# Entry
Amino acid sequence: MHGLRTFYKYNGGSAKGWETVKCNECHHDDTKVIESRDVSDGEAIRRRRRCLECGNRFTTYERLERPQIVVVKNNGGVRELFSRQKLLSGLLRASEKTTLGNVELQRLISDIERELYACGEPEVSSAKIGDMVMQRLAKLDEVAYVRFASVYRRFTDIAGFEQQLSEIRGRKDLLADRP
Ligand SMILES: [Zn+2]
# Structure
């Protein structure tokens, strides 16, 4: 049975690490979340769970920060740890001479990290992270968006790229303005 993988600790217990939540009575790993609530200002989620095997109810505290996210690259399934620094340097390049500085970009990355941790998957594709970045950049700065998109998409999908641009601006001639 596929269990939810998450970083958690039981009520009052010690941290268990990045592993499947098991019932603290019967150790069955199929549990149902009854209730979820953000605690510590969104840094953790408190979940009430019910064991589907024995009916035991228990509470887990799932931390959103400590587990490391594994990024699966598109080409050949190479895996590496998610790196804020690496993403930041790509974003800084895309954001040169735009309205976006270090503070805005750090915030953007934190927002992405939060979303990644919240979905609870231990692995995420680099394509998904790229899409998450682009969604946010599109709302923040068009120039940075276009630069990031042109590197990230590597011009393999010009039609889709142009469509996204025209959706943002409502016209199709933005490519002509690119530096
Ligand atoms: Zn149980």
Summary: The pocket of zinc ion is lined by residues 23, 25-26, 28, 51, 53-54, 56 (CB under 6 Å). The helical segments are 84-94, 102-119, 126-140, 142-153, 158-169. Residues 5-63 form one domain.
